[in-house]
Amino acid sequence: MRKISFSPPDISDLEINEIVETLRSGWITTGPRTHLFEDKLS
Q: Whole-model pTM above 0.70?
């Protein structure tokens, strides 16, 4: 069996802050940030 090396996540402070703001907003599924994400993705 091959060994898969462990690597810590690379998450910036900006990404953490965006996640915190999203959680604090109360909108985590279909809120304004979801629509913004979908618009940028398409």
A: no
